[in-house]
Amino acid sequence: MDDFKVPFAAYSALFRAVNNSMFINDKLSNKIVWMSNGNKEVNMEIFNEKRLKSILFKEIKSLYNDRINFHDLNLARLGEGDINNFLIERFYLVEDNDYGYSGLYEIFPKTFRCEKCDDFRIFQNEKEWAEFDVNKCRVSGCDGSYTQVPFVGFCETCGEISSIFHNCENHGHEHLKLIRKDINAPGTWKIRCTECNNEMDMMNFCNHRKHALSDKDIRKLKPINVNQGGIFRSIVKTTIDIADYGESKDIDIILLGAYLHYWDKYFDEESDLSDEEIIEDVVYYLDMLEKYSSERDRRKAVRRGINPGVFEEGEKIKKDVDNLKEEYDFSYSELNDYFILKKRFSEDEENQNINFYDIVKDNEKSLKEYVKFKREMGIEEITYIPDIHIISSSIGVIKGINKSDENIVPHFEPHWKSQKDKDVFKAFSFPFETEGIMFDLDKEKLVKWIFDNSDKEWNKNISAEEFLFELDETSEEYKNLKTLIHTFSHILINRSSLYTGLNSDSCGELLFPKAGAFLIYSTSNINIGGFSFVFENSLFEWFNNVKLEVNDCVFDPTCIDEHGACFSCVYLPEFVCSHFNDFLDRDVFLGENRFKKGYWE
Fold this sequence. Notes:
Elements: H1 13-16, E1 22-25, E2 28-35, H2 49-71, E3 86-90, E4 103-107, E5 112-114, E6 120-121, H3 126-130, E7 146-148, E8 151-154, E9 161-163, E10 176-179, E11 190-193, E12 199-201, E13 222-225, E14 232-240, H4 251-259, H5 275-291, H6 295-303, H7 309-327, H8 332-341, E15 354-355, H9 356-360, H10 364-377, E16 379-399, E17 411-416, E18 425-441, H11 443-452, H12 464-470, H13 476-494, H14 496-499, E19 507-512, E20 517-522, H15 530-537, H16 539-542, H17 546-551, H18 558-562, H19 587-590
Parallel strand pairs: 3-18
Antiparallel strand pairs: 1-2, 2-4, 5-6, 5-7, 8-9, 8-13, 10-11, 11-12, 14-16, 15-16, 16-17, 16-18, 17-18, 18-20, 19-20
Helix pairs in contact: 4-5, 4-8, 5-7, 11-12
């Protein structure tokens, strides 16, 4: 049963085909055992792996350490030095049979019951599993066949996932029967030995104390049906790939400094350098400082003709880099991705972005319609981006029940290279090229809306752009901002198939709250130019009746009264949504329940 090949679309494989992820094939639940390293010629190149590694490691470190701290686990926390134990592996994309396969999966859990007599099968070794005949019950006189029992046990204390396993003290595991007292309540199910009628609960107690995972009291495992929701949810981080600027590990803070004009003081005003050239020079100074780290090495370098001013400037820049790190502790790589997409740091003349204003500026009627459209929708600018270099990476899995409770920290587990040692960990990355459309919301209107729904007052001495940049990511205002942008994105993606030729499953999104913007891009393996077409021919139609769609959900009033979002209105599949359908609420536009004023009022 384990020899069949199962294909996955490249992008969705990030969510469905990484270590420990689950999928259904031929009515059986399966788990990925391992994936191949795809550093082969069939994969695209990652231009700046150092930046990617830094961004992903920071996310992994935060998620894993938060889990350990919240649940008080006896696990080693990740420190800054552990980045040296972190690997980037690309998916091995199999294009034809010549390449074989890219990973291995197996049936999981290996627990079965006879559909006629409820004989319960578990397996102690590979020999028992190899001899198992799913179509033949082992009980004498029964002509039934076996069906998988797709339940595993989950410990909410330590996060461990365990297959069901029982042994009768006197008769082993050869005479077990599953007793389903209430079919809809697996927590009540029992395992009975038919030889001595000894009955055991189907779910054992977790042995996290025995394995030194936690000192907390042991508790009974919670049954989870693996067919009704992934017990291993892949966490995917998507970033924009950029040029390799050099050896500096601080490229993101350097980019942020360029946006803030922090480095201008090191260059002659008359030199008229572009941001890209300034960034290259700053990286050069820091690289030289790193290359010649000791005073002895620097003296040698000066004797060989290197200007000693290089090291003096490098020390000043390094100090400024450290100061910037202390001053700005938010996730500025996300903001840098926005600047990269908007060509803030690039002079790429071959693949220029197209502003929608340039499409309509010579047509008076269309221009008036665009001005009116922007005012009604609260949009500042719409930009078509023809060449987006994206890297999506699975950085680990959430184990157990998916909870939306913001007070619960989930059990995040990195992709360990070895389940025994757990020293080296990795990410599975998929680089690809695509197209997309960036929607910049009206920053003035956006900030006004934020304060309309807050008890605070806007200091008008601070511009809307500055306010968004400085907004605390832990604040309620930031959460509302993110909810508005995310909901706006979902509404357009849900409507995309009508106008772009791409259904919602072939779209992706990136949110940039601090820039007041979001990007919708194509994840299709074949770029059919859907976003290019809608941008040039039917952009206004894409928004037709969008306000009516926001007003109604078939599950109203329950939907709008409780959360303002559900699977029937704005939810999207997990491999489309960048935040697992969190931060969504139609009321951001309506202002009827949780918000005092709607954005479109």
